[in-house]
Amino acid sequence: MTRCAGPLLFAGIASFLSAATRGRFRLIIGYEASHTGDLARDGAAIIEGLGGHALLMPRALPAPLTAFSVRMVMADGALYIRSSGEALIYLGGRAVDRSREGALASEAELSLIDEAAVSDEASLPRAEGGWECVGEGMIGAYVDRAVSRISSLSDTTHVPTPVSVEDPTGLLTSLLERLGVPIDEAGAGLSLRVRCEGRTLCSSLSEEQVRTALGEALATSPALPAGRGLYCVDPAFVMDADAISAGAALALLAPR
Asked: Are 90 and 77 in contact (CB under 8 A)?
């Protein structure tokens, strides 16, 4: 479900979304690493030049925040640039039915995007401006939504498992602190690591133990990707393999 991020891909998405929405579409552009920020801004210029409206994520952030933002700002899609140069493509708004807003584009949809791409990069128009930035408040909204969802799944009498976290400054740590989960590097009974793109969770528990602990928190929507270490705890708002939220849920729900 990935493509190489670049001008031709932005052109294909513009053509696809223009046809799907029959009007001026809205596309969010997010990126994993700061060195891909220039590519994201060039994409925004292409989208604006081709009649769409681009909304740039405020800085390098994990992929689930881009997926989360699709519905929150009523966008018709999103493109997330990974540090490797690959792109994840999400669809939303008028481009898909509401049950799939923020979900990764299917292979059939990606094929249509490929077919819509122009062959001459030099002919692509680039606007001098016109795009917007998604506000930093989107990060707080993501944390608030995840905390609300995870708290609703937990037993208030259950004492959270102390955890160790690889990145003490990341969003997973923010979620754990909001949920009252103790972070103990020395005597933790559970270790968690979320890869920087935010989609893959690694823990000291086995896959079977993780799934047992999360139970009903795991999404079963057929629109979601499946595979080892890929989870989603809120299919209504985070139609993505959201390891950040899954890691926080695991810390709250796992037995001591």
From this structure: yes
